[in-house]
Design goal:
Blueprint: E1 2-5, H1 10-22, E2 31-34, H2 48-64, E3 70-80, E4 87-96, E5 101-105, E6 109-110, H3 113-120, H4 125-133, H5 143-148, H6 155-166, H7 168-171
Parallel strand pairs: 1-2, 1-3
Antiparallel strand pairs: 3-4, 4-5, 4-6
Helix pairs in contact: 1-6, 3-4
Amino acid sequence: MYVGVGSGNPVKRRAVESVLEATDAFDSDATVEAVPVDSGVSEQPVGHAETVRGAETRAANVLESGEYDLGVGIEGGVARVEGASGLFLVMWAAVDDGETSGLGSGPSLRLPDAIAARVESGEELGPVMDDVLGESDVAKRQGAAGALTGGSLDRQSALAAAVSGALGPFATDHY
């Protein structure tokens, strides 16, 4: 099986690899490749709808190349959640084979107020986290998820949860 992940970010590729390796329904020899594609949404998606659209667009754009059995799109965004205060980091994954598609979300993590204020003023979360942590390329390592949970949940694991949900229609016959 040849799987394309619609991003050049190695964390997203590793998240997909980890899920495929752990799922009995997939060949252990699946090849997973990073495929940088356009998301069709803003650099910092806001709201669940825009974040889902970004994941779906990435998956579809991977398939357009004609080389992959599965296209996987993963998109992180920020959203307000009805009934909860604050701004949350959200993540969505989409998987598509041209006939069947699946969607799944990862955990939602409340952003600290100071970080949320910067994002709401127009900054992208990744560079804000780099600045706050005094590091670079946080999004390619622990991600905001790792920083905001004291390392108990890293970005790869959080994204893997979203990918696991999106692979449901491909991994079981319950759909």
